[in-house]
Amino acid sequence: MRQFLRHPTEMPVELVPHKGEHLPLQRLHDISLGGVACNSSRAFRRGTALRLCIPLLGDQACYSGIVAWCRKQLREYIIGIAFTDEENMFRARMMEQICLIEQYRQQREAEAGEPLDAQAVAQEWIARHAAGFAPV
Asked: CA 19, 20, 26 angle in degrees (round to 5)?
């Protein structure tokens, strides 16, 4: 079973469809790489090729993927985006780690009531969580 990382909701994403590109549904079963699950205000059809961008992390934080699944929630959708090549998968997993470390830093600073050293908090997150974040 492929693993889909849950993208932190505090870090908004943009989902941009690749016009005219679509992966046939039968090919979706052959995608073995993992992906990212994120919120979306709109639904996407399985097999739709798109780019996932994280604007807060800059222009380099964009990755090509395929919609593997789409689930309706109360007010929005959760979209599972599968990566079809190892380069996009690796880059996306690194960006997801950055997002999770930033989320952890904000949580720790709220608990401490003061700014904390970002490098120390990142090392703390890595020591606690990196083993569970190993490549799929």
From this structure: 120
Please work out, in degrees rounded to the nearest 5, the angle formed at the alpha carbon of residue 121 by the alpha carbons of 56 and 54. Answer: 15
Which stretch, 7-21, 90-104, 106-120, has highest mean pLDDT?
Answer: 106-120
Phi, psi of 46 (to 5 degrees): -55, 140
Q: pTM, whole model, 2 decimals?
A: 0.73
pLDDT in tens, 104-116: 999 999 999 999 9
State the sign of the Cα–Cα–Cα–Cα dihedral 136, 71, 81, 39.
negative
In 3D space, the residue among 28, 27, 21, 98 whose CA is nearest the CA of residue 70 turns out to be: 28
Structure token pair of residue 13: 């994403």
Helix pair angle (118-129, 86-112), 10° resolution: 120
Beta bridge partners of 79: 38, 70
Burial class (CB in 10 A: 0-12, 13-18, 19+), 35: buried
The stretches of the chain forming alpha helices (DSSP H) are 25-28, 86-112, 118-129
